[in-house]
Design goal:
The structure is a single chain. The protein is mainly α and 127 residues long. The protein folds into 2 domains: 80 residues, Multidrug-efflux Transporter Regulator, Chain: A, Domain 2 (Orthogonal Bundle); 33 residues. Helix content is 57%, strand content 9%. The protein has 5 helices and 4 strands; from the N terminus they run H-H-E-E-H-H-E-E-H. It has a two-stranded antiparallel sheet. Strands 3-4 form a two-stranded antiparallel sheet. The longest helix is centred in the C-terminal third of the chain and has 33 residues. The model has no long low-confidence stretch (mean pLDDT 88).
Length: 127
């Protein structure tokens, strides 16, 4: 199938598919005139890539662990390849640290807003 067909079937833009190819995540065959020729297995591969991207993995990480993805009758899942668990745990720790920093920023923002809110002047009661 052509890149436009794969894009339509997967809901991924042709540009993104070319990016996946540039990163070594997709390796389509080429026909005699040089056009990409995707197979049905590429539809599954794109779904696997999208699943990993949606979890926050970058293409370099996906490239290292794409062979750990399994798709079967119960959907797509990751098999814990050596090194993958450590990488996922490190990502989770970074997210926890970022979440804590955001919570602290929010707390400081609220404190700043409370400290600078206009307060009614004494003796200026509304009549």
């Amino acid at each position: 199938m052509l890149i436009s067909e794969l894009a339509r079937l997967t809901g991924v833009s042709a540009r993104a598919l070319r990016h996946y190819e540039d990163r070594g995540l997709l390796v389509p065959a080429r026909d005699d005139n040089g056009y990409r020729d995707y197979s049905e297995s590429d539809v599954i591969r794109v779904a696997q890539i999208r699943m990993m991207i949606s979890a926050g993995l970058g293409t370099s990480t996906i490239q290292r662990y794409l062979d750990c993805v399994r798709t079967g009758e119960h959907g797509t899942h990751l098999e814990m390849c050596p090194g993958l668990r450590a990488e996922l745990d490190a990502m989770a720790r970074r997210l926890d640290a970022q979440q804590a920093e955001l919570a602290e920023r929010r707390r400081r923002l609220c404190a700043l807003a409370a400290a600078t809110s206009p307060k009614p002047a004494a003796g200026n009661a509304a009549t």
